[in-house]
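hi! just following up on the protien thing from before. the input was this:
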Amino acid sequence: MGHVNLPPGRRGPGGRQWTLLDLVSAAFFAAVLIFFVLVFTSLGDSLAASGRRALARSSTSDPRQRQRILALLDPPSSAASAASRAVVIDACSAEEVDNMPCEDPRRNSQLSREMNFYRERHCPPPEEMPLCLVPPPKGYRIPVSWPESLHKIWHDNMPYDKIAERKGHQGWMKEEGPYFIFPGGGTMFPDGAEQYIAKLGQFIPINKHIVRTALDMGCGVASFGGFLLKENIMTISFAPRDSHKSQIQFALERGVPAFVAMLGTRRLPFPAYSFDLVHCSRCLIPFTAHNGTYLIEVDRLLRPEGYLVISGPPVQWAKQDKEWADLQAMAHALCYELIAVDGNTAIWKKPSGASCLPNLGNFRLDQCSDNDDPNEAWYVKLKKCVSKVPLSSEISIGAIPKWPKRLSKPSARVSLMKNGIDVFDADTRRWARRVAYYKKSLGVKLGSPQIRNVMDMNAFFGGFAASLSSEPVWVMNVVPARKPLTLGIIYDRGLVGVYHDWCEAFSTYPRTYDLIHVAGINSLIRDTSGNNRCSLVDLMVEMDRMLRPEGTAVVRDSPEVIDKAAHIARAIRWTVHVHESEPESRGGEKILVATKTFWTLPATSS
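and the predicted 3d structure came back as:
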């Protein structure tokens, strides 16, 4: 630390003594400084909001009250008491309209800034989770339907003007009457995503059904991914919860696949070799920092023969010559082919087969050991080594069928499972029957304008999503992190998804899904010995947080579990219908179809 050199007359014990006037003056100036900080900076807003939230949470986070509710709604025995039928879970305060338990700035701001650790997921323990229902904001309306929603959404559904004010001149979004309008621009493509995509199409086979899955890092409001949908490219976009406020919330409100994430100290929650295209438009990820750890993570995710696009810094960027040279050198060390450099946009193609290692010694890197599973990515630290993936050449872009044939043909990864091809084919047929039953007999409005954003909480091979491929929906396929790691097969089919543990909150904003589907809900909270790791009540409260008002939940499980789920559903203010499973089903399951009611806080609530 530096030392302040004071003039001789003010040093040491013989220096000038503080007078009462000095102390009063210092206190006055300190008070003025604190006043300006609290009134004229965002710190004051956040502290005030934090105080209001703490007061509002006091009733809903009472541990004793929480335990009483859990005991009534989720008792050890399957029988529901008369008291449980009268339970209605309270609403959270108005301050919690955008509550994200695992991406809470109040908690995360106290953590380390090293490698953006504080911007990653950090979940509170269950006993600290308030057991309450997240309300919609004042003035909330049922969202604009797809595809109109790609271009405009209701302003009051997320009344946050910061992006429009700061990025409107770059074509991100602007306020117009009761709407936010999305012209389709971005920082590196202010003239629009369509023009930018057409430019990339000169070097990448974007419209040839070869590229199907894409990852957009630091996506803004996801216009890039939104306009790639016209090319039958399914892009999953991510960005952290940060100062831009709600950029992922805007993306999901538009009907574009997205979730909240940060490339910091951990692997992103995807399997190896998932994406045919990885895109960064001014995402500001320091790819070669920390011995190239971030570029190594991109290499883990990018399919052999896939394309990497970096637009913005450091590509031919002023005062970043070294960073640009390092990026080129490391990409070359990975044997990536530099296809084009056009202004501030660079495009590489990954080689087929395993990444080569002729020059990685310069970056002090090597291949990962055989003990490293490149498909494990749930709370797994980033590795400073290049992953080895089985069957890498068999799942390269050139080796898998074009879209849509790849949807129904089992990939090479399926063969790694016992009887994998037979299980895959049976699963595909089973979900085609089940979805037809949902539509025809249960009245689930799949294919209607009311349903765009869909989640499958227990996706396995993605059969449910595959059966919806002709509908105007996209599906977030979630593979539970404690179950077989089948998510790579889902990506081989041309679908998208993430790993997750359902004893924690999902990385999305409230009110972001129109339909949530789960088969075997009880298996999501049980350990290998059959004991519950967490409560079904907490899980269904989390489903309510993610579900839009008037959204639909479809739950399949045993009659005992469905009976318990129905009681919990009524306690969280859903309307409930329980049905027999389709005639071809042999598992003795029942199906709960529930609708989240559109309720609001009383006008006087705060």
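The first helix runs from residue 20 to 40.
The first strand starts at residue 152 and ends at 154.
cheers
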